[in-house]
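Cross-check.
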Amino acid sequence: MGLNRRHFLTFLAAGFGTVACGRFPQTQQAPATRSSAGMKLAFQPVRGPMPLAVEAIAANQQPQIYQFYEVADDLVLPAGYTYDILASWGDKVGDSRFGYNNDYLSFIPTGENEGLLVVNFEYVSAVPWQQSYERVIGKTLPLREVDRAVRQAVKAIKDDKVPGLNAFRLSDQDPIKQQVQAVCAEALIDQGLGIISVRKTTEGRWERTASKLDRRVSGISGLRDGHYLKATGPAVAVFRKTKGQGYVDQLGEKIIGTFQNCAGGTTPWGTVLSAEENIQVQVPEPVYADGTSLDPIHRPFNITDEELTGLGNVFGLAGNKYGWIIEVDPMNPTDYGTKHTWLGRYRHEAVGVRVEAGKKLAFYSGCDRQGGHIYKFVSQEPVIDPTAKSNSKLLETGMLYVAQFNPDGTGKWLPLAPDTPINPTPPSFLAGVMLPLPQRPEGGIFKAEKDEQVVAFRQRFKQLGDLYTGNVVEKQGAILIDAHYAANAIGATCAARPEDTVIAPDGSLFIAFTSGSAHRENGSSDIRVFKGPKGETGYEYGWVMHLTETDNAPDATTFKWEMTATGGEPVEGGMGFANPDNLTFDPKGNLWMVTDMSSDRLNREVGANRLEKSGAPIRPSSLRGIYGNNSIWCMPMTGDGAGEAYLFGYGPMESELTGPCFTQDGSTLFLSVQHPGETQGIRKDMAMEERQFALRTTSGQEFMQTRKVPIGSNWPSKQANDPPKPSVVVIRKTTPGELVV
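Predicted model, tokenized:
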């Protein structure tokens, strides 16, 4: 289904007034979009690889127009728009460097046409990072020796569910441990967040400026430089333990670094919130009943085709200290971040902060995994002045809630408190027929695959506090540390990979759900809530939801929800995109969205009749190849075209576009281009190949498209055999003026 225009026009009646936070060869313009009275697009949409309903091309003409398509290894934008590279992996930042896989962006103005740009760095992509490290950074790493040691360890650990090298238990004098430390330190330096000073020139371009505020907070901050991160809230009582059921790092409330930093948010008082997402890749995620961590051996170091994993193992990082929200004040050069534990520990992918004078602060976030949840923290005290720096204290005391969606479009917030009743969702309501629950009295989790297991769990444990140990504060801290599995235990709705939450001008919430597919380890979404346009369960292509609190109160305990946009092919009821990710509003009130299709699915060939070579129907996950590269879309919120999705651009090969952020005057869009060349690495000698795709017209007729696809990437230089480098770009019009009018 498309956007519900009646719903949106009613919603938008009050108007929008908030700020959503090089050269380029343009050859792929879409045919003229249909005329809509009262609607004016500032750009001519880019032509993507498949027919869209908004193009208003006759269905019988679409096979001819889309018979051939050539994908560019570039950031492709509409005519009249261009981009400049602002910063790339390896560039100098303070006494460190610009990290890898830049994600969320936050622009903090410090004066007219100048400010600070805060950048998240999520992870390192194994193939291009290893290929390019020496050439980009100018140093060598013992990658070959470490890879050999890992392979030998994996071979020696028979049937280990988490294979790798447990370097933590090696002697400090062991040369293998020292080599692993060298590799892991560099990979963790390339994660975390960075702060760079920028300004706009008289020619309209943005450039970096050296500032004493420029600095990095990396995955090893505090390990060697003393720049430990701080923590607040109940989990601090667990961190201070000197012994417990599990592993304790003996650092108390001091925390070494931050990594896997994905989404984020900006507060009205000028601080930035950075979200730690897939921490389970680097440290053990499950914990014991007292909130202490599993031993580092449960996430040994390894090098896979996608990532370097278990980076925390060799340094003995405690898993319970990662998976939080970090608050940083960019204007304070001595601030290296505070983890507010009342906001919960899980795979954070979204940050939405509602701050209104006289009302309690509400903080929204999502857990990006199949079966993840939507959370809301409500402060104990109300906001007095939304711009006061003292508002940071509001994040230190309150209550964390988790959403329970009802199929009728209503819902309620369940408190993650010790006295909340145990009431897990039966697996029969989940697309993957599995629900991870805390394993007690043992640590960790178990997978409830049958409804009978949930019944037995509910009979054994009555309240959430029964699953955790310690005094009152320690027990609450342990619940927050184990937030995802605790939420499963009380019946929170298992959602479809919630990847972003954005606050609308009226205080309501928009949520991007990336995919309803199932995962054998994580879980799956609730089939009563997350359905495709035709009622499909386990729907791959995602949704955008609109959530409104009862009486529009930030501290409401009930709400209403409605799906307002759905991914997928137009003929199937979708809007032509797949896997929505980050959302933002521009100064004119238009909703912008970027997509997050897996790199190994981008431009994957789809044969005639959409069949595998075996003759079986192609899986929905592999069918995402028809959508081309990851992209950025604009959804006008006014006029007859309100709620339609228009393709503004797409990214280089195997990349993802993230963190869109507009300046207040609307003349600039900051955008991250993450992991170009992630699967194939460096594009060699401008290699390309032709692939065949079975597409469908908007009326359902199948036709074949020949698509030319670059193999690997040379972006941003676009010169043959150059390494691909994640970079932040600045998008602007080629003539002065606002990006969107």
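The CA atoms of residues 45 and 556 lie 40 Å apart. The chain has nine helices and 36 strands. Passed to J.P. for a second look.
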